[in-house]
Hints:
Elements: E1 3-12, H1 20-31, E2 33-39, E3 42-48, H2 51-54, E4 57-61, E5 64-68, H3 72-81, E6 86-95, H4 97-108
Antiparallel strand pairs: 1-5, 1-6, 2-3, 4-5
Amino acid sequence: xxxxxxxxxxxxxxxxxxxxxxxxxxxxxxxxxxxxxxxxxxxxxxxxxxxxxxxxxxxxxxxxxxxxxxxxxxxxxxxxxxxxxxxxxxxxxxxxxxxxxxxxxxxxx
Length: 109
């Protein structure tokens, strides 16, 4: 049985962001980031999570990923918050059992 999933593509419109900071904020909220803090002789590394850390996904290409349909509402809410600065599209796709398992394994790693 095939499972319905969504392919999401997006492109940023850099000129519409007020600063590099704002543009980076979009990517950090989506993908998360690694923060390094140096204090005296020590170095602390933290993984800050983004939305895609919470949602199982397959990264197809830069700015293109597949999620299960059941997670789409959360993704739409995020993308709509940025819709004046990015362009995005969604496409329905069907995953066979093997592809669905691959999506789950990628998230578990």
